Amino acid sequence: MGGPAGRRGHIVRLSAIGAAHDAPTRNGRLHALSDAELQQSGIPWTILRPSHFMQNLLGAKAGEHLYGLLGDSRAGVVDARDIAAAGAAILAAPRQHENMVYTPTGPESISLDQAADEIARATGQPVRYVPQSPEQARDGLLQAGLDQWSAEVLAEYRVAYGSGWGDFTNDHVARITGRQPRTFAEFVRDHREHFASA
């Protein structure tokens, strides 16, 4: 945060999609509290509230089955590498982004049926999305060894995303970095070996 004389500090905070005091997830409500603390700190700031990470799906495939938190809805899933690139670009030119809140998304809003099809195409293996209710998602996460609090929070995201809460895209990554965010097809190609062995 410090630096040579005459330079101001700047904080880029990684928050969560839809962070607000009335967010439908407790994670969003907790992030809103931290966002507010930063906004009131007197330190120059930029807040990133990214959409659902593409990387979340790296642990969501089990054999021929793909699981996830979108229900039958879509989301503007974003590659975490694009979020990192946005953060770096902001820190390289902080004054342009001071006191701004961005919600980085990918270039397209996709369903998990589409995600499964894309993974199948890239790996040459059959992959089918298995929708789960919020309760099934929570119970499956608990059985996989996740703690109760985290499993319940993710089940809340299943409710929110399942209602279409994340079904949007925007130009925030391109506006900040000067280039288009990665597509889900590009992400899958980059991680094809992981998906093929999952």
UniProtKB/TrEMBL annotation:
Signal peptide annotation: none
Domain of life assignment: Bacteria
Designated name of the protein: NmrA family NAD(P)-binding protein
